[in-house]
Amino acid sequence: MGNAGVRGRPIASLVLSPQERTYLERQVRRHRVARSLSERCRAILRCADGLPSKSVAAELGIHEHTVGKWRRRFLKDRCDGLLDEARPGRPRTIDDDQVAEVIERTLRTTPADATHWSIRSMAAETGFSHTTIRRMWSAFGLQPHRSQTFKLSSDPLFVDKVRDIVGLYLSPPNRALVLSIDEKSQIQALDREQPVLPMMPGIPERRTHSYVRHGTTTLFAALDVDAQVPEGLDVHIVMDNYATHKTPRIKAWLARRPHYHVHFTPTSASWINQVERWFAELTRKQIQRGVHTSVRQLEADIRTFIDLHNKNPKPFKWTKSADQILASVKRFCHKAQQTLCGEL
Question: Which pLDDT value is given to residue 204?
Fold first, then answer.
């Protein structure tokens, strides 16, 4: 009697290891992964959440039998089971050693007439087609035409300062105000040499790369969501070691106000000051594509942006702990050290 409502074969439970879940989630997030693979990974993740195949199919807009197929293949071969099976066709003409040689040459050498390889120059050097080089680079995530800058802090108190400031963000003192203060210097009033052509259907906004400079200005900002500071309240100030912060006049001002506590950011680590996040918003929304024929006009636009922002201010939420930040820096240093050792 108790089994009268049970129909069909029982479905094997689908339990993911942490490594499998990380892999599947990464494939779902990647922009360049095949849509079919992303869909299969998403289906397995939802099955692992306990949803039946019918519900997963309805959620993803695919057939229930398709969900069942990939569920069975995952249970049999795990993540490898989600990959496309080999299809009959022309045999592979490029072996692993040839691929490794192209990747090694991309990473370790440069062409005689340039600072980095391009698809065209690498194709000419190796004899492979442009499409083959593009596929190799894409498979290994290589983009020689792009570069990034970095600068590690040499501050001997880097660890202590990171823990101090992150502690203020994640667990601020009771009955105290935390202010992030910084300056954005050398903001240029730039005017394009030719008028900006407005955006049209199918055509983005176009502007000439050449411009005329009309002077610079400096913005000093304190990031705070409160309109006023109650008298006598402890104030914790996060700021860098800018020269003006060390003048006798500033030191005397702070000495007369013992409820003001200064927390200096490490050298070359301005990213830990949350007002830098607001500066990024100012640059992206107002300065980067703005046209200003004078410093006065530039400052007027900045003040307008500030007024509009302050009408509905929202705090930036700091999420990473000091341990996470320091671990990330450690990983970067270790990777950089390995790269240098490989080059020596």
Answer: 59
Q: What is the CATH number of the domain that holds 296?
A: 3.30.420.10
Token readout for 220 is 């000093």
Query: Integer distance in angstroms from the first to the last C-alpha of the chain?
Result: 76
pTM above 0.85, yes or no: no
Instruction: Tell me the range of 56-70, 225-239, 278-292 where mean pLDDT is highest.
Output: 56-70
Q: Which residue has the tokens 């949803």?
A: 51
pLDDT tens for residues 30-49? 765 567 788 889 999 999 99
In contact, 20 and 78? CB cutoff 8 Å:
yes
Please state the separation of Cα 11 from the chain's center in Å. Answer: 40
Look up the domain containing 221 and give its range: 158-196+209-334
Which pair of tokens denotes residue 285?
């929304």
d(CA 11, CA 312): 52
Backbone angles phi, psi at 187, to 5 degrees: -80, 120
Residues 188 and 117 both lie in one domain? no
